[in-house]
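hiii, so i know i said id send this last week but things got crazy w the move. better late than never?? heres the sequnce for the chain we talked about at the cafe, plus the structure i predicted for it. fair warning i was half asleep when i ran it
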Amino acid sequence: MLNLKFKWLFLVASFALISCDPSTDPDPDMDTDSYESYRYELWKLLNGKGYDVDFVGTQFDDGTYELFNGVSFDPDHEGIGGLEADGLLANLNQVLPNIDKPDIILLCIGGNDLLAEEPVQGVIDTIALILERINQFDEDIVVFIEQIAPGNNELMTDEFQAVISEFNEKIAVLASSWVGSQNIYSVDMYTDFTEDLLADDVHYNELGAIEIAARYGDAIGLVFAPGTYKLLPLGDSRVEGAHP
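okay and structure toks below
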């Protein structure tokens, strides 16, 4: 049996080593200490379609991004590297009251739990508590929750493939059967997502960020007409990104 917990610890240790010594790069042809969030690409996509988008959150992206239509990128978000579902749940009581109320939450969580070999149903149960907490805060907030994209081919053994598939199936059921609010939508980030969209084992490269942004954009467009909205990108390192 593959020890996925060991794999997860190895990934965390590798990212920590790189962040402590920016000159450490085992492959000179690959910038292993940077990867992309979907946020910049989604911000451009939505603004290009007539949406006035204000990202909110207590975290701040200090990367350097090109202007879009003469406007600077909105760097606010709530992505935290290494975060698991229970950590996100614990943070919500500090986050939601201290930001402008979002109209939309984009939720990406669960990948770190699965890499740490947490039981799938336990992760789903915690995500249900996250949705309940959001609903209690404001039942008008619309949540788009990811059926998460896969990792690279090395990570996606038959065993872990089954884990991800079970998780994503349960996410879809959770969203479609939600009784606390009718404003929960699952977004399929898994189907047809390929290894060439990844910068490393689990994080997006620029093409991957564009792909995830497009899927979010399509989902948002089915629910919201162009207008002015506050969006909270919420979750783990795939939300946070590591753009230089």
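btw The beta strands are 52-55, 59-60, 76-79, 104-108, 142-147, 184-188, 228-235. thought thatd interest u
miss u guys!!
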